């Protein structure tokens, strides 16, 4: 059966840990596994622009023995002249994996339904699961075993990053806190799924509009831009923004348990995070960015070898 990775919980807790173990192995020995030897081709489709996703997948596919086929916006018939279902059936006869950075989660689900090769969500409006794998790898490197640690996300609690932190973090047995304004908190179905998962993993999910309480005792503080790609920025970044009090600054960092700071980048210093924090000694954002490469290589290897 072809395995896909469309959201964080498409890996069981044990499988997620296996992928992270493999990422550690591949970081130490980058060319030790070559599931794409041939070279086989992996298609990397972009409906949204990218830096880290583009570079990490292209470099990772090459390191696994394959050849990346980068398809930029407007360079294929996908979704306008040709259906997603037809595209999936055509592409999966020619490539060994399909990686798609897109908008609607439903498109990824349709692609996977009709594809005979693994489909990977490299970002959608609902989830960013590849980023969470990289973040978990980074936490493991700097804090040890992720299970039982407390990770607090500050900002827009209803966006794709918050959704993936809630599900991916709890999947790893972490205690996840989402600190967000009352009108920007996770959807009820995300909360319910995370809570059901917590019963299996020993993790937990807490949603609050109190940034001070959310930061207190946390091992990891993380944020994201207040305006996700493609969103209207009106009212989100000015002084009256509902997110202003959720800015990660040194005062919040001081409340944590000697925490590290994560951000998926690009970051806007002076908005969601201060320069003092992101450029300070607790920031591991560039390790986190590099770990996109290693985590995604591990994920592709896991899916392809299945």
TrEMBL record:
Residues annotated as binding carbamoyl phosphate: 50-53, 77, 101, 128-131, 264-265, 292
Cited Gene3D superfamilies: Aspartate/ornithine carbamoyltransferase
Domain Aspartate/ornithine carbamoyltransferase Asp/Orn-binding: 147-302
Family (UniProt): Belongs to the aspartate/ornithine carbamoyltransferase superfamily. OTCase family.
Descriptive protein name: Ornithine carbamoyltransferase
Class of this enzyme: transferase
Compartments, as annotated in UniProt: Cytoplasm
One term of GO molecular function: ornithine carbamoyltransferase activity
Entry's Gene Ontology BP terms: citrulline biosynthetic process; L-arginine biosynthetic process via ornithine
InterPro entries: Asp/Orn_carbamoyltranf_P-bd (IPR006132), Asp/Orn_carbamoylTrfase (IPR006130), Asp/Orn_carbamoylTrfase_sf (IPR036901), Asp_carbamoyltransf_Asp/Orn-bd (IPR006131), Orn/put_carbamltrans (IPR002292), OTCase_ArgI (IPR024904)
Catalyzed reactions: carbamoyl phosphate + L-ornithine = L-citrulline + phosphate + H(+)
Chain residues that bind L-ornithine: 160, 224, 228-229
GO cellular component: cytoplasm
Any Pfam family the entry gives: OTCace_N
Residue ranges occupied by any Aspartate/ornithine carbamoyltransferase carbamoyl-P binding domain in the UniProt entry: 3-141
Alphabetized HAMAP family for the sequence: OTCase (MF_01109)
UniProt entry keywords in alphabetical sequence: Cytoplasm, Transferase
Pathway connected to this protein: Amino-acid biosynthesis; L-arginine biosynthesis; L-arginine from L-ornithine and carbamoyl phosphate: step 1/3
EC numbers, comma separated: 2.1.3.3
């Amino acid at each position: 059966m072809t395995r896909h990775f469309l959201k964080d919980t498409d890996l069981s807790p044990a499988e997620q840990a296996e992928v992270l173990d493999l990422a550690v192995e591949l970081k130490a020995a980058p060319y030790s596994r070559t599931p794409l030897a041939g070279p086989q081709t992996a298609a990397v489709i972009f409906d949204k622009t990218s830096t880290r996703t583009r570079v990490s997948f292209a470099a990772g596919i090459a390191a696994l023995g394959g050849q990346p086929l980068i398809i930029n916006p407007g360079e294929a018939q996908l979704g306008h002249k040709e259906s997603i279902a037809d595209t999936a059936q055509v592409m999966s006869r020619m490539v060994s994996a399909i990686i798609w950075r897109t908008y609607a989660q439903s498109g990824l689900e349709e692609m996977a339904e009709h594809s005979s090769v693994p489909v990977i969500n490299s970002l959608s409006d609902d989830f960013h699961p590849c980023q969470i794998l990289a973040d978990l790898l980074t936490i493991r490197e700097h804090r040890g075993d992720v299970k039982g640690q407390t990770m607090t996300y500050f900002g827009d609690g209803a966006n794709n990053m918050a959704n993936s932190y809630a599900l991916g973090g709890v999947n790893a047995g972490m205690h996840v806190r989402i600190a967000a304004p009352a009108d920007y908190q996770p959807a009820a179905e995300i909360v319910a799924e995370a809570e059901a998962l917590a019963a299996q993993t020993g993790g937990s999910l807490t949603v609050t509009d109190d940034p001070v309480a959310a930061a207190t005792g946390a091992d990891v503080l993380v944020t994201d831009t207040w305006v996700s790609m493609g969103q209207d920025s009106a009212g989100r970044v000015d002084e009256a923004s509902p997110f202003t009090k959720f800015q990660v600054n040194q005062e919040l960092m001081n409340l944590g348990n000697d925490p590290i700071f994560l951000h998926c980048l690009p970051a806007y210093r002076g908005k969601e995070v201060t320069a003092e924090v992101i450029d300070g000694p607790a920031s591991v954002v560039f390790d986190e960015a590099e770990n996109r490469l290693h985590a995604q290589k591990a994920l592709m290897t896991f899916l392809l070898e299945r």
